[in-house]
Amino acid sequence: MGHHILVPKEGVAVHINAFNFPIWGMLEKCAVNWLAGVPAIVKPATLTSFVTETMVKDIIDSGILPEGALQLVCGNARNILDFVSSQDVVTFTGSASTGRLLKAHPRIIQEAVPFNMEADSLNSMVMGTDVKPGSPEFDIFIKEVRKEMVVKCGQKCTAVRRILVPEAMAEDVQIALGKALAQTKIGDPRTEGVKMGAIAGRDQLMDVRAQVSKIMEQAELVYGSLDDVDILSGNKEKGAFISPILLRTDDPLNCIAAHEIEAFGPVATLMPYGSMDEAVELVKMGKGSLCSSITTADDKIAKAYVLGAATHHGRILVFNKECTPESTGHGSPLPSLVHGGPGRAGGGEEMGGMRGVKHYMQRCAIQGSPTTLTEVTGQYQYGGTYKQPPVHLFRMHFDELEVGQTVVTHKRTVTEADIVNFANVSWDHFYAHTDETSLQDTLFEKRVAHGYFVLSAAAGLFVDPAKGPVLLNYGLEECRFTKPVYVGMTIGVRLTVKEKILQDQRDENDVKKGIVKFLVDVYDETGETVAIATILTMVRV
């Protein structure tokens, strides 16, 4: 038979993070590489590396990690990739241009080093053709655009860069958005009332101004200033403060700069569109984005946009008055979702959940007899040799049980009374169980036993009723009914220890226990399986 296993890679995880991810970028990635059993070398951007260094010091001082599990490199580390091998994993979060440079490193190519890139992108927010001033969706759109422009001073990989609105709504949106942006108080974030701080540094401020100037060669500045800003507190000369910048182009199909140049600050370009097809065409001109959103009360418009734009996006959020109160917002995915995007956005994803853990492991296909693979994997493989336990499995503690140990139960012949009684108890009177005259042109030859009766009868056969180490049974996995069970058939059960998972104690008073997965194989008088399932039990150590 064949099976897949995952084993930790023998190298290190190299995490290269942009200046706007000094903490989150590191912790999000390290969490999963540590769970995979792989140590990490973190290289933050020099501009904000002092923040990363403070966090790393706290982590090391806490003693929660094995020695060497976390290492930090600050400053110039331009040869860091010269030494990676196929057993290492490199992840990058930052600008698309830097990501492409790193991804093309000769060592990455030569060693086929796994490389995950999550790049900044020209994300878009779209107003549906049904939205009008005064509607809830209009207000939702203005509020969300403003937030995505100014939160973190626009220094987010998911920040909005392109604002698409119907042609008839362009003036209304420009006026409303200008009023909303004017409410944004700028200055030292420690000051009461301040809603937007500064760009990360003076060099970064100069870069934002330069990029905006390039876009302005094809677009018009309609709100804000590159040269001056009103602040509540702070120092204009020393601080990297900038006002929100709203640009506008009335020819978005030919305003190439707005689709290719990203000013990494509180900057976005307003773009009128003529039809939903044109809106989809415009967002695709960004050549791949992490996220987009559409605000509409019309689900048909939402469907048209989502299915049209999905090829070029990692995530699309639909705003309306129903979902907005609970929404995570344009820039924040639900934790269960994959965050990443194609093309310019890097073609990678955030390393969260089991997906992230597996990224730092090698999948290997193994082949052999079921008995051999049971020993290799520590999980019972169907068809493997059974081990004879000294007593019933429910009489044994967690640490006494061995994978492969099996109890073969007594047998039971199914009667018509069993089926009738189960139907009356469960209220399941499906015709195949209760009406033999309706079976013509069906899969069944005669009245058939309920699948859940077969499973219940199996439990009656394999359960040892006396009090013992088994604390409780709390679920089923992979339950299948594979063959009809008719009146007069005889069933028995093979109960096998499939897998053992030791649980941590929550505190000193918690019972020492583990989870034991038992394979329940129900078979008939011919030896053929009629039902198979995995039950989950909690067993005392």
Structure write-up:
The protein is of the alpha/beta class. It folds into three domains: 8-119, 3-Layer(aba) Sandwich (Aldehyde Dehydrogenase, Chain A, domain 1); 123-332, Aldehyde Dehydrogenase, Chain A, domain 2 (3-Layer(aba) Sandwich), CATH 3.40.309; 368-540, Hotdog Thioesterase (Thiol Ester Dehydrase, Chain A). The protein is built from 15 helices and 20 strands. The protein has helices at 24-35, 49-62, 96-103, 106-111, 136-150, 170-182, 202-215, 256-260, 276-284, 299-309, 353-359, 370-377, 416-426, 431-434, 451-462; strands spanning 2-8, 13-17, 40-44, 70-72, 89-94, 115-119, 123-127, 160-166, 220-223, 245-248, 267-273, 289-295, 313-319, 361-367, 406-408, 412-413, 470-481, 490-502, 513-523, 529-540. The chain has a seven-stranded mixed β-sheet with strand order 9-10-11-8-7-12-13, with helices on both faces. A hairpin with a 5-residue loop joins strand 19 and strand 20 (529-540). Helix 5 (136-150) crosses helix 6 (170-182). The model has no long low-confidence stretch (mean pLDDT 94).
Topology at a glance:
Layout: E1 2-8, E2 13-17, H1 24-35, E3 40-44, H2 49-62, E4 70-72, E5 89-94, H3 96-103, H4 106-111, E6 115-119, E7 123-127, H5 136-150, E8 160-166, H6 170-182, H7 202-215, E9 220-223, E10 245-248, H8 256-260, E11 267-273, H9 276-284, E12 289-295, H10 299-309, E13 313-319, H11 353-359, E14 361-367, H12 370-377, E15 406-408, E16 412-413, H13 416-426, H14 431-434, H15 451-462, E17 470-481, E18 490-502, E19 513-523, E20 529-540
Parallel strand pairs: 2-3, 2-5, 3-4, 5-6, 7-8, 7-12, 8-11, 10-11, 12-13
Antiparallel strand pairs: 1-14, 9-10, 15-18, 16-18, 17-20, 18-19, 19-20
